[in-house]
Structure formats: structure tokens, C-alpha cells
Amino acid sequence: MAQKLSNLLATALTVATGVVGHGHVNNIIVNGVYYQGYDPTSFPYMPNPPIVIGWTAADLDNGFVAPDAYQGPDIVCHKNATNAKGHASVKAGDTILLQWLPLPWPHPGPIVDYLANCNGDCETVDKTTLEFFKIDGVGLISGADPGNWAQNVLVTNNNTWVVQIPKDLQTGNYVLRHELIALHSSGQPDGAQNYPQCFNLAVTGTGSLQPTGVLATDLYHESDPGILVNIYTSSLAYTMPGPSLVAGLPSSVAQGNSAATATSSATIPGGGGSSSSRASSASATKTSSGATSRPTSSSIRTTSAPAGGPTQTLYGQCGGSGYSGPTICASPAVCTTLNPYYAQCVSR
């Protein structure tokens, strides 16, 4: 049985070999219209980056927010996030497709979506005052060890996820908080990886639904059973993290990929934006970047690369059960053991 378990674990992690795990939402599509999101890997280097609907974040490595930051401002919309300067207009009941890059996303874990009413312009709201209510949430779908997760569905659909704005939602300006939580290292404290992404939406409709929300700093705690959890077990009963889903809403709408037929710029409060054009394709590809970990002194193995020998790139896999690739990290990275089944090249 132990050997079988080891083999299954190795198989589950094979997808991560040579593949990186960081990412961001590159764009959203609403009713066939493409809206650009914030790209943390390129926009910071532009003298005049475009005004978009996605909140800025200081995660140049497409990184994550760790559980030890759950009670700080980074959990709201990612590291040092600041308000997007524009928004997209949507109707209550619309579905929104979110496109993650780079491809593919290799980690298991849940996907959750929240909304928060800005009670004014989302472009100027204080993020620490936003109160989020959950509008969808999918975790472990079937199987175990590690099983079929929401993030497997995302990969199947070209790294996209579809969320629906509640049909009866009250008209207003909202922040959509979309989040992947990677659990490949969640069996150890501070091992889960949160990837929150925020977007400004101006929602119109005739409904009156205005659910009660909670501050982002109250969404999760380090010891929550859906955060600190060993997913490499054959008898996992997974508990979704965060507050309860708004009553009457489905945990998810039908998932599937779709192409944009037009593009639109962000609408700026007081005028500007909303120009659109026909788009021949909404697809994009980028080179991958990897998933980091928070190393401890006991988990770091410092090694020197032999001249001419194979090395692993920053954030690539460098060890673990069943792994047979390079075990030496390209300088200045070091190989860090996350658990018995996975080790990764991270910055010193």
C-alpha cells in the first residue's frame, strides 16, 4: 500500500516537472468583449502602462500570498495591490470568463470568487474597508490523492474559469475578487499559496440582493481545515475555506472556454474608455514562470552546479518522489524541499 501511495503521489506531481506554477489573470471576457487585466510581469516596466480594470499588484514573479499574511492587506487583492483606474460594465446575471496566464497551471486546489460593494467608485475605495461575499466556490470534485480539483477544471478549459454575477444583485460598483488557492504544499504550516486577483465592475440590474460580507482579513486563518491540509491521502473530506456561499447561489456555473469577438478599454470615472473594436482572437501565450515557496533553514539544500551539468531554472522542480530531472538550481537559486514529494528552486 505504501508503495502504491508513493507511486500515486509521484504521478500527481509529474505535471509540475519542468513546469512553473505562478500566474495572473491576463484578461476577462464579458458577453464576447475582451477587457485587459493587469500584467505584473510587464506593466511595471512600461513608461505609460494602459489603464485597465485589474488591480495592480507588486508580484513581478507572478507570486502568491502565504497564510502568514492572511491578516494583512496583501490578502485583499495581492501584494501591495492598488486600485485599478478603470472598470468594466456588466449586467446582473452576466457570466465572466477569466483567463489565467502562463499556461498550464499545474497545482491542485480550490477556486473561489467574491464580490464587494465599493459604495462609490472602486477606483478610489480603501481596500481595507471592502467587505466580500462569496458568489462561487469549488474545491475537491471527485477522487483523492490528490483527486480532481477545481483547478484541474480550469486547466481543462485552457486555464479559464467562468463566474456568474448574481442575477438579483443590486446595481452598484463592485470589486470582483477571484482566487486560486494552491494546495500542493498545504500539509505544512504556511504551505498554502493564495493567488487573489481583483477587478472593478459597474453592475446594473433591477435586483435588490446585497449580501453581508466580511473583510478580506477575516476570510481565512492559517489553521483553517481547508488551508492547512494534507491532500495526499486516500480519504480526504475537504472543507472549502472562507465564509459560506451566498444563499441560493450555485457553487459554480457551467465551465467552458469562449473566444472574444470584440475588445474594450476600461471605463474611467467621469468619462473616457469604453471604446471597442472587433477582435480576431482573444488568445495569448506567454512563457511560464514558477511557483515560489517560503524556505526555512532546515529545508534548504545549497548545492553548486557542475560545469556543463544540467541545472533547473528558478522556481522549477528540483527534487521529490519520482522526480528524475535536474537537482541543481541555476545560481543564485537553491533547491528547497517543500515536502517529501516536491522540491523547488527558489531565491536565496
Please give the structural blueprint.
Layout: H1 2-14, E1 24-30, E2 33-36, H2 74-77, E3 88-91, E4 95-101, E5 111-117, E6 131-138, E7 140-142, E8 148-149, H3 150-156, E9 160-164, E10 172-182, E11 193-204, E12 214-215, E13 262-264, E14 276-278, E15 300-301, E16 317-319, E17 334-339, E18 342-346
Parallel strand pairs: 2-13, 3-11
Antiparallel strand pairs: 1-2, 1-4, 4-9, 5-6, 5-10, 6-12, 7-8, 10-11, 13-14, 15-17, 16-18, 17-18
GO biological process, one term: cellulose catabolic process
Biased composition (Low complexity): 275-307
Organism: Trichoderma guizhouense
Describe the 3D structure.
With 348 residues, this protein is mainly beta. It folds into 2 domains: 1-13 and 290-348, no CATH class; 21-278, Distorted Sandwich (Coagulation Factor XIII, Chain A, domain 1), CATH 2.70.50.70. It is 7% helix and 27% strand. It is built from 3 helices and 18 strands. It has helices at residues 2-14, 74-77, 150-156, and strands spanning 24-30, 33-36, 88-91, 95-101, 111-117, 131-138, 140-142, 148-149, 160-164, 172-182, 193-204, 214-215, 262-264, 276-278, 300-301, 317-319, 334-339, 342-346. The strands form 4 sheets. Strands 9-4-1-2-13-14 form a 6-stranded mixed sheet. It is globular. The protein starts with a helix and ends with a strand.
